[in-house]
Amino acid sequence: MSRSVRQRSRWWWLAGLALVLGQAVHAAPLAISQLMASLAKQPQGAATFTETKYISILDQPVESSGELLFIAPARLEKRTLKPKPETMVLDGATLILERGRRKHVLQLKDYPEVAGMIESIRAALAGDRKALERVYHLALDGSNERWTLVLTPLDPKVGAVIARIQMDGVRDEVRSVEILQADGDRSVMRIQKAETP
Question: Residue 152 in contact with residue 142, Cβ under 8 Å?
Fold first, then answer.
């Protein structure tokens, strides 16, 4: 092997090593405190969603779509547009559900199972680690470029309904929320940030 070929071979090897090391540094593990701080920087946000529910007693999954609006620290609106209009507004400790002419006003403290499910999304969007850790054990995997946060219920009442919640995201955006229920049913919500005009 000639000297020039050896030098080129060594150069390619060094370039490859630098690339691998650069990616390793770039994809450094993300800490929960870093993720929460990043999410908390978004005081409000609008997005569209598509949700697919897999229910054991149904032959086909149930799909819906609509809009999400979050205003920190405590307001979350989910407006389902298809297949039927439905609105869910969580403001503080009050949940308002509207479908057609029917309207229900619930206090979350009276429904800990429902509260656990909804609070997970609101607290994550707000970057509120304390609120999440009151209800869930948190496990984070990945880097700032692509992360997965798994929430496992601490409260047996919540655990009787929800087995786990998995959120996937990129940087300061939650891109999907998968809720696995204790009975095996699950739902997957895919979220796309609305374009700012």
Answer: no
Prediction pTM value: 0.80
In angstroms, the CA 113 to CA 97 distance is 16
Number of folded domains that form the chain: 2
The verdict on 185 and 91 lying in the same domain is yes
- Give dist(CA 193, CA 146) in Å, integer: 16
The per-type count for the chain, helices as H runs and strands as E runs, is 5, 11
The closest of 183, 189, 137, 133 to 161, measured between CA atoms, is: 183
Do the beta carbons of residue 131 and residue 138 sit within 8 Å? Answer: no
Beta strands (DSSP E) in 32-185 are: 44-54, 62-71, 75-82, 86-91, 94-99, 102-107, 136-143, 146-153, 162-170, 173-181
Strands 75-82 and 62-71, by their bridges, are: antiparallel
Are 158 and 110 within one domain? yes
Q: Which residues of the chain fall below pLDDT 70? A: 1-28, 195-197
Q: Which of 117, 99, 185 is nearest to 155 (CA)?
A: 117
Which residue segment(s) compose the domain that 22 sits in?
1-29
88 and 11 share a domain? no
Over residues 65-119, the pLDDT tens digits come to 999 999 887 899 999 999 999 999 999 889 999 998 999 999 988 887 777 778 7
Whether residue 24 is found in the same domain as residue 39: no
